[in-house]
Specification:
By secondary structure, the chain is mostly beta strands. The protein folds into 3 domains: 36 residues, no CATH class; 43 residues, no CATH class; 94 residues, no CATH class. Helix content is 2%, strand content 42%. It has 1 helix and 13 strands; from the N terminus they run βαββββββββββββ. Strands 9, 10, 11, 12 and 13 form a 5-stranded mixed β-sheet that branches. A hairpin with a 5-residue loop joins strand 5 and strand 6. The protein starts with 12 loop residues before the first strand and ends in a 5-residue tail after the last strand. The model has no long low-confidence stretch (mean pLDDT 80).
Amino acid sequence: MSTSLIQTSFSRGEIGPQLYGRIDLAAYQNGLRQLSNFIVTPYGGFVNRAGSYFLAQTLNNEVVRLIRFKFNNADAYALEFTHLAMRVYRNGGLVRPAPVGEAKPHSVQATYIGEAGLGHFGRFNVDHAIYYAFGRDSLNPIAGADPQLRRGNAVNVSAGMAAIELSYDKDWLRPRIGFFYATGDRNPRDRTARGRAE
């Protein structure tokens, strides 16, 4: 005569082969050998694993690398990396690059060069950084249409920043002074994105 056992809790999730014969352990009583396409909840039950679905075509139909990025419990993103380009998706839609007023994908192909470091001279500490970014943004409605109609809404990117901080060590006290500079764009409609100072 066979009997059927009803298992009411799966709180241990999948158990390893080392526990297959250990019926005396609670892990065996509350575990599963295999659980496909489900997620065990902390209270012992399980729910369907969320599937994947088609969001958008990759940039230029290239091979991409997708990376999950979870900033906190409320902000989760999918990062799409292709050659010299990155796109960000959230809640089923493209987030970045986000052109103002247009819901079309576009790319920012930019490179940056720079240097940062820290050092000290006796009790004086020096932290510094300087960076310069250059490249092209394929769609920038803020800059307006190209008056000569050569590049559509594409703009050149040319922006920089510099920062320095000086501090002095005196026992437990460390007074500091710092300076930060970022390039600003006095004329955002001149087809060159020079950055912004905030």
